[in-house]
Every structure is written in structure tokens, then in C-alpha cells.
Protein: Pre-mRNA-splicing factor ISY1
Organism: Carex littledalei
Amino acid sequence: MARNEEKAQSMLNRFITMKQEEKRKPKERRPFLASECRDLAEADRWRSEILREIGAKVAEIQNEGLGEHRLRDLNDEINKLLRERAHWERRIIDLGGPNYALKGAPKMTDLDGNIIDIPNPSGRGPGYRYFGAAKKLPGVRELFEKPPEVRKRRSRYQIYKRIGASYYGYRDDEDGVLEKLEGPAEAEMRAQAAEEWKRVERIRREALKTVQSGEVASAGVPSIAAAEVLFEEEEDVVEEERMLERERQEREKGKETEYVAHVPLPDEKEIEKMVLEKKKRDLLSKYTSEGLLEEQQEAKEMLNVHQ
């Protein structure tokens, strides 16, 4: 049995292929301007043809081994076809067809697959897009790289804003750890303090009993512990008297330095009256002469008028 290549080269197959080509109409060429098309079906067909060409070139541009120049040419051709597709979509709208632009807005992804905005410096049209391996070309990769995050130094206000009660240790007892550690130590300190108080109280009672009864020790003097307690009590009394004397002196010193006004101070009505009189004198001195003022003063003295 012959192979496929031999079948293709057979005379019968060539004859059939030639007859099929003769029956076909000459291949139509897509109009250069979309405005030249007057038929909605034809415009839709040309748009579909552009979409097929775009799909084929997008599949081809995924190959990184094509070289930089070929990748750039393919990317330019794809962007050109995209612009042409937009022209045909506008022409379809003019002919009363559907609006394909609203169904799917143009999108572009970065190297990580995230959807990003299409760079459009001119502000016209959908902008220039990069596809496949063209995103990794030198000069293009930098467009998709995210700038490093600059860590701003926090201000003093932001630092203090985050400080709460935990920073000052007010909530250290809530976790229960400190309570477990302080419990035995506190109990021991309380026991020591109670024992010391009992010892001092016992010695104080013995000393008071000895002093009241007039009894003395074998050597003729009270015991050493009782003497220490009595001496401490005397020191407390002396210290208390000193503190009272110091407070009394401070109060007396404060009274001496206190300012006392020996002159009666004017009230609010008197101050208003004085201000009004001063304004009157200023107006009279501005619009009258010195001679007239003297005559007016003499007339007031003769009439015994004090206002």
C-alpha cells in the first residue's frame, strides 16, 4: 500500500486539486479602509478574519527562540491588527450591527499573570500591548516590574498612636504568668512582716509593762530590746514634732510673702467712667485750642461744676 506522500503526488490527486481550484472564485482582498465596506455581513466576515490572524500571530509569538527582531515585528503586527479590528467594529456599529467593543474590553497581563493597565502615552485608542515572549524583551521587562516599596519612616505621632496600656505594663497581670510567680513571694513577705510586727509588739508591751511597774533588770536598766523599742518611739515623736514645726514655718513664710493691696481698687463702672473721660479729653484736645480749654475750666470753677 502506498504511503500518503506517494498518494499526494499521484496524477489523480493532482487533477482533482486543479479542478477544485478552477471552480473557486478569485480570493478577495480585504478593503484597506473599513469605510469602503457597505454590507454588514461582509464587515462581520472581515472582522472574523482579522481575529483569526491575531490568534495565529499570538500563538507564534509565544516562542522565545524566534529572536528579538522577529518578536518585535510580530508584536507590531498584532497591534496593527488590533487597531484594524477596532476600525471594523466601529464600521459594524455604523451599519447597524452589534457593539463588539462593549463585550470584552482589551486586557493585558504582566509576567506574573496579573491584569494591569495597558500603557497608552498618547491617550488615543486602546494603547500599545505586548504579547507572549515580547514581554521579556530588554526595555519591555522594566515596564512590568513593580517598583520596590519604599518603607517610610514613621513619625512620632504614628509611633505614639500605636502605644496602649500594654506598652506601660498595665495588662501584665491578665495573662496569669506574673500572678503565679508573685503569689508565693507575696505570701512569704506577708508572713515575714506579720512575724516582725508580732515581735515588735511583744517587746513594746514588755517595755511598757516594765516602765509602768518601775521594775528594772538585774543590772538596774531595762533590757536591750525594750530600750531599742522605746528609743524608736522617742525618735518617731521627735520626727513628727519637727515635721509639724517645718509646716508651721512654711505657712508663716507664705503669709509674709502674700501681697496685700492697701489701696482701694476701682470697680468695673469706675474704670468705664475713667475711660470715657479720657476719650472726651482726647476729642476736646483735638478739636479745640488751649485757650478755649482754659476759659472752659475757669467757667467750671466759677460755677462750681466738677463734671
